[in-house]
Amino acid sequence: MPSHRPNFSVIAATVVISVAIPLQLHGNKLVILNAFAQTNLSENQWVVIPTKNNKNEAFRLNEAAIKLSEQKRFQEALDNLDRALEIYVTINDQSGEAATLNNKGRVYESQGQYSQALRYYQQALFINRQIKNQFAISRTWSNIGNLWLKQNKPELAILAFKQCVSNREKVRITNPQISKAEEQPYSHTDLENYQTLAAILLKENRVAEAGRIIDLIKIPELHEFFDGVRGNQNTAKGVELLPEEQQIFQTMSKIFDRAIALGQELTTLRKISPEKRTPQQQQRLQELVKLQEQQLEQFNNFINSPEVATQVEQLTRQEKRQNINLDSLNSIRDNLSRMPQKSVLLYPLILPNSLELILVTPESPPIHRSVPVKREELNQAILAFREVLQDPTLNPKPAGSKLYDWLIKPIENELNNANAKTIIYAPDSQLRYIPLAALYDGNQWLVQRFNINYITAASLTDFNNKPQQQVRILAAAFTRGRYQFNVGTRQFVFSGLPFAGKEVANLVATVPGTKQLLNDEFSPNSTVPQLDDYTIVHFATHAAFVVGKPEDSFILFGNGDRVTLEDISSWSLPRVDLVVLSACETGLGGQLGNGEEILGFGFQIQKTGAKSAIASLWVVDDGGTQELMNAFYATLPLNKFTKAESLRQAQTALISGKNQRLNHPYYWAPFILIGNGL
After folding, report:
1. One domain, residues 441 and 524
2. What is d(CA 519, CA 561) in angstroms, rounded to the nearest whole number?
3. What's the confidence (pLDDT) of residue 164?
4. How far is CA 474 from CA 41, 227, 497, 510, 567, in A?
5. Is there a single domain that holds both residue 364 and residue 483?
6. In 155-181, which positions are buried (b, 16+ CB within 10 angstroms) versus exposed (e)?
7. Rounded to whole angstroms, how far apart are CA atoms 430 and 509?
């Protein structure tokens, strides 16, 4: 069995060195072992110098320390981290040094030694700011935020998590990929950090700020699903600091800047081997580590100062006044006010013990309602509703009413007061698997009252980009043949859709200039290059949104080839207003995922430059789909209605139509519009 001890050479030395091993407690005695102090080695003491595979060994020591800490073997974990720090200092790897400091903070935090944990997090933050590692800065702030949350300092925790989010979104534009080594020193994921911030803000009744975070939550969700997602100039703004928070952070930044200047000088001196340092350099090194120690004390004193207490008290009063003026909120309100119909934006957030609802209207402050329902109960209701929706022999109204009472009834008065005609909806997690249109208020379906327009996130959507006047349609269909294949562990068998041919033929007859592609001529090689020549792309074929990886979800072309969600990212469709997939299915296998595959489809379509997409949450009877699409295209090309209104008109036509078989939401409810609804 291979040894797990590091590969070291040991030499005798009489030197004075500065190493980046942080402050360590032995009993009640504080032993100085860090970069902000020095270790004096007298004659005949041993200096440990790593010889090879240094970085790999340090990484392994960090991994082992995390596992030991989880087993509550805290001293062994700290010993491993001390050895890792020796290696990182020796090879001058400041990034690894900061990561290990974060891990030491986590070990002390696990023991409830919060003041010690904060000191290590501070040291890591100083180093990460010095080397300008935005991702590490983000995650170190999240560690600090969680620590302050445990200490019942919610206002300071909010400030820390805001810094976490803002720094993370800055780096996402240039570096969406994060390695395992970079992720290792942090106990919480991006998604967990964003969700934590949203939950604290809601608990503190800071609704407007919470709305911004709930919107941004979609970005780390997409990042986890696609293994790296770039943001945009809107998301890169992160989340704004309130004036009181800005004052606190400005003082913190001054302390950080002084520590960084000291750290840069110290790093330069540390690069000089001890035996080559002049007495003046050695004296300056000793001064620098003492000065850095003073910076740590100054940071702690500031956090506990009357100045911060005053700012926190002002924040508390601000929460009660709710007079927050956020640029991101004003931008959303402006977008809503310029919609052709009265529109509101609905954000639900599923927490372990509640469903949080935020409603944004053009005129009023954001409205927050908290519904006391456990996540497990909500998920069970979602799954039950979906099951009855997919069986036209069952009555979905009781299940639809139950979810209506949780999702819509708490904000019903506000919807009426806003005279809302359109609900722009950014569903969270499992809510993505059910159509909002099919909620039932006791008298009618929700779609009979409102247009419903899904979005991935407001920060990724242009609400007011109007469609082109001249409609040009490319209509493609898989009408005959049979294809069988495996994707992962699942087997798919798809047959041609006879009514899809009629669907396409109707488009050709209804909209002049429509081009049709059937079966073998409907292949990726021949179809994809011409997509951007049209304003509407209509695919009457099978597609599957499968829980798992992006490459598991796909669109089936008429010749049997498949294009995955990952492949769609290479399409360029800046002139396309709408992509329609009329025969999708959501492959749950009886288990709910987080709906990332549905969120991911909408995001990928928007990423191509296309303005919006229509997809279905389950496969509908072939003839029923044709009826709905016929009704949809009967109004859309006339430019009398928006896409959202045309879809609502088509759905209500089936509800009230003479063919009572199609009244059931199984036929009309699964079709959702994602993106710009104009």
Report:
1. no
2. 11
3. 95
4. 78, 32, 18, 13, 20
5. no
6. bbbbbbbbbbbbbbbbbbeeebebeee
7. 39
What does the DSSP 8-state code read for residue 465? Answer: -
Euclidean distance between CA atoms 503 and 548, whole angstroms: 31
Which of 150, 144, 139, 217 has the alpha carbon at shortest distance from 179? 139
Query: Which helix H or strand E contains 70, and what residues bound it?
Result: helix 54-70
Buried b / exposed e over 100-118, threshold 16 CB at 10 Å, is bbbbbbbbbbebeeeebbb
Phi-psi region of 231 (alpha: psi -120 to 50; beta: other; left: phi over 0): beta
Whether residues 389 and 503 share a domain: the answer is no
Domain span at residue 612? Answer: 473-675
| Integer Cα distance of 670 and 662 in angstroms | 13
Q: Are residues 382 and 495 in the same domain?
A: no
- Quick one: pLDDT at residue 588? 57
The enclosing domain of 516 has a CATH number of: 3.40.50.1460
* Extended strands (E) in 500-594: 515-518, 536-546, 554-556, 562-564, 578-587
- Report the chain (678 residues): mean pLDDT per 10 consecutive residues: 32 27 29 30 34 77 92 94 90 90 94 92 90 91 95 94 93 73 73 95 92 92 84 87 90 84 80 85 86 81 85 71 63 84 94 95 91 96 95 96 98 95 95 96 97 91 80 94 88 90 90 93 96 95 88 93 92 95 72 85 91 91 84 84 94 92 94 92
Tell me the per-residue pLDDT of 667-678, one tens digit each, with 9 for 90 and over. 999 999 999 998
Same domain, 399 and 500: no
C-alpha–C-alpha distance, residues 575 and 467, integer Å: 9
End-to-end Cα spacing for the chain: 66
Same domain flag for 383 and 493: no
Q: How far apart are CA 117 and CA 187, in angstroms?
A: 13
Q: Residue 133 has which token pair?
A: 């590692």
pLDDT at 434: 95
The answer to whether the CB of 192 falls within 8 A of the CB of 224 is no
Concatenated DSSP letters for 114-137? HHHHHHHHHHHHHHHHHHT-HHHH
Q: Residue 195's closest CA among 177, 215, 181, 178?
A: 215
Residue 41's SS3 state is coil
Same domain (yes/no): 434, 573: no
Nearest of 13, 33, 38, 147 to residue 84 by alpha carbon: 33
Q: Are 587 and 546 in contact (CB under 8 A)?
A: yes
The pLDDT tens digits for 598-619 are 999 999 998 999 999 999 999 8
Domain assignment of residue 142, yes or no: no
Is 489 exposed, middle or buried (CB count within 10 Å of its CB: 0-12, 13-18, 19+)?
exposed
Residue 440 DSSP label: B
502 and 598 co-located in one domain: yes
Which residues of 531-597 form beta strands (DSSP E)? 536-546, 554-556, 562-564, 578-587
Residue 415 maps to which CATH number?
Answer: 3.30.420
pLDDT, residue 83, reads 93
Cβ atoms 359, 336 nearer than 8 A = no
Q: How many other C-beta atoms can be found within 10 angstroms of the C-beta atom of residue 530?
A: 12
Tell me the HSE value of 604 on the side-chain side, using a 13 A CA sphere: 26
Torsion, CA 154, CA 156, CA 162, CA 165, rounded to 10: -80
Rg, the chain, Cα only: 29
Q: Spell 333-354 as b/e; 16+ CB within 10 A means b.
A: bebbeebeebbbbbbbbbbeeb
Question: What pTM did the predictor assign?
Answer: 0.85
Q: What's the confidence (pLDDT) of residue 592?
A: 76
